[in-house]
Amino acid sequence: MAQASEQGRRIMLVDDHPMWLEALEEDLVEAGFDVVAVARDGRECLARARAVRPDVVVMDLNIPAPNGVECIQQLMGERPDLDIIVVSASGERDDVLDAVKAGAKGYVLKSASKEELLHAVQRTAAGEAVFTPALAGLVLGEYRRMATAKQHGDEVPELTARETEVLRLVATGLSYREIAERLVVSHRTVQNHVQNVLHKLELHNRVELARYAIKQGLDS
Amino acid sequence: MDSSQSLLRSMWRAGGLLRFAMLVLACAVNGLRDPQALHPRLLVAVCAVMAAWSVCTWFWNQSARRRTWVWMMLDIVVTAAIVATSRPVLGETLLRDSFLGVSVYWMAAAPIAVAIWKGPVAGAVAGAVLGLEQFLQLPSLAPRAWLDLVCMVIVPAFVGLVATELEVLLRQRDKDRAVAAALAERERLNRIVHDGVLQVLAMVEHEGGDLGPKGVRLARLAGEQETRLRGLLQDRGIALDAEGSASGDTMTDLVSMVMLRESPSVSVSVMAGAVAMPLRRARELDAAIGEALTNVTKHAGPDAHAWILLEEDGGELIVSLRDDGVGMTAAQLRDAAAAGRLGVRESIQGRIRALGGVCSWRSEPQGGLEWEFRVPVGA
User: Fold this and answer.
1) Mutating which of A17, A166, A168, A172 best tests the B interface, going by the most B Cβ atoms within 10 A?
2) What is the end-to-end Cα distance of chain B in Å, rounded?
3) Which tens digit of pLDDT belongs to each residue from B65-99?
4) In whole angstroms, what is the distance from residue A38 CA to residue A32 CA?
5) Which of B362, B359, B363 is nearest to B372 (CA)?
6) Which residue, of A13, A158, B9, B304, has the greatest Cβ tally within 10 A?
7) What is the DSSP letter of B348?
8) How far apart are CA A12 and CA A55, in angstroms?
9) What is the pLDDT of residues B203-216, one digit of tens each?
10) Chain A residue closest to B197 (CA)?
């Protein structure tokens, strides 16, 4: 079960499907979480997040405009300390990758069991990255893609050999504990590696966005 | 406004401007030869009429509704009347000098307008009528005399041809765009429908467990369908097929193919995007993965879960496959392979080697079995 400090954190739910909003809210409240707001589309999400200032946002990506990825981008720009977890039905790979690059701390499919979902929210609330095997594969692929597409003079983040190893183990379904055992390191070290991988990706994305914005500004 | 409409508008504007350019030319030529003309004042008057008519047609032709048969005929008749004054106004001597009538080349503007309006044949006929009229003012075998007649047929015919072809082309493009827009809209609607279905299936899967044995069964069924539908929605094989057929060897997206292996007991991790691979190679690699998964269901125990990781690293594909089943020692696995069991030797190792790749495994008791295939993407 969640620690008291995690359960004290204020949660906002964003989903355009009322049945999911209800079910998620019920489950989270039952588990002792404090659900302070719900939103059904991107505009509501941004407005309510500014008004109630939640600590954790549980977000569906497929919502009426602005979409989930844009919302995450916006929210993380305003509140870098916010913890966002994506709970999506479709699992579109590009969307999920964009969400993580924009700053989401994790991603679970809606078809995950109740326990898995709750566990994921608890870990996000505790500030941890929630790395499912599918997400690890996507992130690994993205680092490989950036390394391949890299042109002379580009600065792209790279994974250390250890980080690659950890990601591959996550992607093949090992838990942090199992990885720690296998690599003979502490659970905390594994967590740090994972967090670092996400952080580098997010940072790079922000630099890219800023560069793009400046270029647009200069061109117009 | 569609693009064929705006193209027609600019063609009409170009036709009008051409008429003014020809007017300037006619005035210049007539100005130079005015003193030698039989009736210099009448020549000036004819130039004034041409200028007035140019302005009239410029404004009148702006609206498609006003471009009627009567108007087009009137344009030809007015032009013909001006051309007819050539011999009486200029006099035979001056006309024989250059065989250029009072309108010089201005008379081509009306047939060009007809050509833009009704196509090359109508334009050529109108041009022939006016050209013949000009020729008959002073019939002669001198090339200067009849070459203008030929030009009066060819130029409007050419302009008409270009106008018609462009219009057909742009109509087709507009139609294609409309079809593309309709397809995009259908795609958008599909997404909404599919998303709704996925949401409900996921909900049944999520909540079914709490509803007793029947609920558990429903949840399992919903889970299977949800995984399948999600896999199908991410399938990008079609686009790659079309791309590859040009090069002779059918290509497919390996990522979509491997994604279809996902099920409640198999998790698949892939990169975003697609990996184009020759269809036969992709099928072989996929079959090797399938064989390894069959192994899992046969030997790793009923509750075993399998994970597949597909990576591409600089032209090399890396497939990692792990299960959390009962596992076996390396000696057991070697024995099994030697005995031809597990399908290991032929089905997995043989396939990977035939693809020019390497295959390795490790196993720990209670730690499940791990495979790694490394295969080049191309042949």
Assistant:
1) A172
2) 51
3) 899 999 999 999 999 999 999 999 999 989 888 88
4) 17
5) B359
6) A13
7) I
8) 8
9) 888 888 788 888 88
10) A89
Chain A interface, best mutation among B199, B266, B363, by max A CB count within 10 A = B199
Q: Is the CB of A23 less than 8 angstroms away from the CB of B206? A: yes
A125: closest CA of chain B, how far (Å): 21
* Closest by Cα among A171, A172, A177, A205 to A191: A177
| Model pLDDT for residues B6-17, shown as the tens digit of each residue | 888 888 999 999
Amino acid at B123: G
Determine contact, residues B295/B266, Cβ cutoff 8 Å.
no
For residues A41 and A57, the answer to whether their CB atoms sit within 8 Å is: no
Which residues, other chains included, contact B35 with Cβ-Cβ below 8 Å and sequence gap of 6+? Answer: none
In degrees and rounded to multiples of 5, residue B104 shows phi and psi of 50, -115
Give me the interface pTM, i.e. the ipTM.
0.84
Indicate yes or no: CB of A171 within 8 angstroms of CB of B269.
Answer: yes
For residue B93, report the phi and psi dihedrals to the nearest 5 degrees. -60, -50
- CA-based nearest distance B360→chain A, Å: 16
| Average pLDDT over every residue of A19-36 | 89
Residues B2-56: pLDDT tens digits? 677 788 888 899 999 999 999 999 999 999 998 999 999 999 999 999 999 999 9
Q: Which residues of A touch B (CB under 8 A)?
A: 17, 19-20, 23, 62, 89-94, 96-97, 109-114, 117, 133-138, 140-142, 144-145, 148, 168, 171-174
Range list of H helices, chain A: 4-7, 18-30, 42-52, 68-78, 93-102, 114-125, 133-149, 161-171, 176-183, 187-219
> Which residues of chain B lie closer than 8 angstroms to A93, CB-CB?
234, 270-273
DSSP codes joined into one string, B114-176: HHHHH-HHHHHHHHHHHHHHHHHHS--SSHHHHHHHHHHHHHHHHHHHHHHHHHHHHHHHHHH
Contact A92 B195 (CB under 8 A): no
